[in-house]
Design brief:
about 425 residues, alpha/beta, Double Stranded RNA Binding Domain, Lambda Exonuclease, Chain A, five-stranded mixed beta sheet, three-stranded mixed beta sheet, about 15% strand
Length: about 425
């Protein structure tokens, strides 16, 4: 609505300028003069905000006592904000300020309590109070002013009820009331509802819930976007996507060559191919970011790169690979090895699943940040169980998780 009002105001201004110049001065002018004239007109035009007494009003605690409201909600009643934390004067001590007539802390708190009591008496119909327990993963305490709610409520005058008074209902309300009165008290409620079918759970969201339920609630229930970090280089999320794409294209190219397992003899050829694959992707980045990511991938004189770490681990565990699933989606219902056969809906993308000789499989998850806690990490073991079920359905064969190399994560700080 605000955008439409602003657009209407600008169009009205343009029409006024057009009519004025058409009437008083129809000479042609340059575009720069027209742009300056329009800009000056917009700057001098004041758009009157929509006003009125009805609707929802968001006001602060200082302005609220001057309004008349039917319903009031006091939000954010936490310690440090209700009341505000007193800032100490770094130049004068408390004793000097008291001698100069500065109010004491007790007097200030008493004034805040009095103002809070006025807010509790403000609404004509209903009052709601709300607080919270977490702020940026930090526990916060409720406001001390909440202790005054019971005392203020006890002092409020209660109005007698309307028992016995005639109440005039609208036609719709009267018909509904008559229908409810005519229905027997022991009548069963009509209608029925089906079973609840929950949406598919993301494996990463389950891991997020295990680490912090509040982060899960904010990201997956409220769907609040995470604030982007103000960094000169790529964000951690963007860097992770970049690394995943590099390894996906590398292994696709390696498999097209039919080179098979990466060994100590073929590791140099694999590194050269990875450099060829990564170069177009690095070229799509800004020059500064490309130089930094190239160092992260291929290392420098003082540290090894991510590519060297991954290829080194591959060569240290040479096994015959039958097939390789890259960025493989695992969406559907899985029992995850439950004895009762109960299945749950899951969705996720495994970075890499290697199908090995002897009906074995291994799941590899790339991490560009810090190493995960293997006792709490869920993605790799869950993806391994899902892959076992998927293979049993597709190939009618039993596959086992490769114990030495499965459930392995590659990471580097």
């Amino acid at each position: 609505a605000r955008q439409l009002r602003a657009r209407g105001a600008v169009l009205g201004l343009l029409r006024s300028l057009r009519d004025a110049y058409r009437r008083f001065d129809s000479r042609g002018v340059t575009f720069d003069e027209v742009a300056a004239m329009v800009r000056r007109g917009i700057e001098t035009r004041t758009f009157a905000p929509r006003s009125g007494e009805s609707g929802v009003h968001v006001v602060d605690a200082d302005a609220a006592p001057f309004g008349e409201f039917d319903h009031v909600q006091l939000a954010g009643l936490v310690d440090g904000e209700w009341p505000d934390r007193q800032r100490r004067n770094i130049f004068y001590s408390t004793a000097i300020l008291r001698d100069l007539g500065w109010p004491a802390d007790a007097d200030r708190v008493e004034a805040v309590r009095s103002s809070f009591a006025d807010l509790l008496r403000l609404p004509a119909k209903s009052l709601a109070l709300s607080t919270f327990s977490l702020e940026h993963d930090t526990l916060v305490a409720p406001s001390i002013l909440l202790d005054d709610v019971g005392r203020v409520r006890a002092g409020l005058q209660t109005h007698p009820g309307t028992h016995g008074e005639a109440i005039v209902l609208s036609d719709t309300a009267r018909i509904w009331a008559a229908r409810r009165v005519a229905r027997p008290a022991d009548a069963m409620a009509g209608g029925q509802t089906g079973a609840h079918t929950p949406a598919a759970y993301s494996v990463s969201s389950l891991e997020r819930y295990q680490d912090c339920p509040f982060k899960f609630f904010a990201a997956d229930v409220l769907q609040i976007d995470e604030l982007p970090e103000d960094e000169a280089a790529l964000s951690p999320h963007a860097r992770g996507r970049f690394i995943h794409e590099v390894f996906q294209r590398f292994f696709e190219a390696w498999d097209r060559r039919g080179a098979g397992t990466i060994t100590s003899e073929s590791i140099d050829a694999a590194r050269a191919l990875c450099a060829d694959v990564a170069e177009p992707l690095l070229g799509s980045l800004p020059e500064a970011d490309a130089a930094l990511e190239r160092t992260r991938l291929f290392g420098s004189a003082i540290s090894a790169g991510i590519v060297d770490v991954v290829l080194g681990l591959e060569a240290s565990h040479p096994v015959e690979i039958v097939d390789r699933w890259l960025e493989y989606r695992l969406d559907g219902r899985f029992s995850l090895g439950a004895s009762d056969g109960r299945a749950v809906s899951l969705r996720g993308v495994a970075d890499r699943i290697d199908l090995l000789a002897g009906h074995r499989l291994r799941v590899i998850d790339y991490k560009s940040g810090s190493a995960p806690d293997r006792k709490r990490a869920l993605q790799v073991p869950v993806y391994a169980l899902c892959a076992q079920e998927r293979l049993a359905q597709q190939r009618d064969e039993s596959w086992q998780v490769d114990a030495p190399s499965a459930a392995r994560s590659r990471w580097r700080r």
